[in-house]
Design a protein that fits this description.
single chain, mainly alpha, Photosystem 1 Reaction Centre Subunit Xi, Chain: L, 3 domains, two-stranded antiparallel sheet, 8 strands, 61% helix, flat
């Protein structure tokens, strides 16, 4: 008799294996639907679209598991669902990006950590594949995961910049600063740095802006996002390295590293 594959196990069996992730999924999905209904009554179609997008993104982990035969650990799946909710619903619709200091920074730090875990798993899966002749050291796999995470962060910043330039959005959030240093302000055009300190107000085209400093457009936010992505990747990469050195015995790392799905008897799918 043919062995029963993991992806053919009934849906209730998958729920039994990761009940926590299922409960979080249901609660978050219900919350998004209720918010979506409220936004429809408010005729805020942008937020309706964000809610619909969130519902679609919620299905990505299960889609990957079903179609690509990748087993996503319950802890990682819960974090992904909470991250999507925090970014789209709380960040955009509830304006946490503006009203909660450090909200965007925290999400980018988590992105760096999770991206490193995903990059680590991709290389590790190839490294263990019997049909692909790879024999990479734990250090090389950890470094690859680190570089993968930074690449994801950079590509995302490219996306934010493109959206801001093409559609006049503000994905690269502005920062209020109180001093600037620039050679552009040098009237002698001799490449000397001119510094202005103690900026307390800004006027544009004769209109006084209601801010207590100068508005930096996107640069500081972008660099801060890349720095915290670097930190997140730096935290996970050593964890992945130790995990491989101990031949996969680390319980903590297993919670964040996707792997190939297996049959019920332990064989690879």
């Amino acid at each position: 008799m043919a062995r029963k594959k993991w992806h053919t196990i009934p849906f209730y069996e998958q729920i039994r294996k990761t009940p926590g992730a299922f409960v979080v999924y249901i609660l978050l999905r219900l919350s998004v639907i209720l918010i979506m209904i409220a936004q429809i009554f408010n005729r805020d179609w942008k937020n309706v679209f964000l809610c619909a997008l969130t519902l679609v993104l919620f299905t990505v982990p299960s889609f990957i598991e079903k179609n690509w035969h990748i087993d996503i650990p319950g802890t990682l799946e819960v974090i992904i669902l909470l991250f999507i909710y925090a970014a789209e619903i709380l960040g955009e619709i509830r304006a946490y990006y503006v009203n909660v200091p450090g909200w965007d920074t925290a999400l980018h730090t988590i992105t760096g950590f999770l991206s490193a875990a995903v990059g680590f798993s991709l290389v590790d899966i190839l490294n263990r594949n019997e049909h692909i002749k790879l024999s990479l050291s734990p250090l090389y796999v950890a470094m690859t995961a680190f570089c993968f995470s930074l690449s994801v962060g950079i590509i995302w910043e490219f996306f934010e910049f493109s959206m801001d330039m093409m559609f006049g959005l503000d994905m690269q959030k502005d920062t209020i600063i109180h001093s600037i240093s620039s050679v552009t302000l040098d009237e002698t055009m001799s490449n000397k740095i001119v510094t202005i300190n103690g900026i307390t107000e800004t006027t544009v085209n004769g209109v006084h802006l209601n801010i207590d400093g100068y508005l930096d457009i996107g640069l500081i936010d972008t660099m801060k996002d890349l720095i915290v992505t670097f930190i997140g990747a730096s935290v996970f990469s050593p964890i992945g390295y130790v995990y491989l050195k101990k031949r996969g015995k680390g319980r903590f790392a297993k919670r964040f590293i996707p792997s190939l799905q297996r049959d019920e008897d332990g064989g690879k799918d």
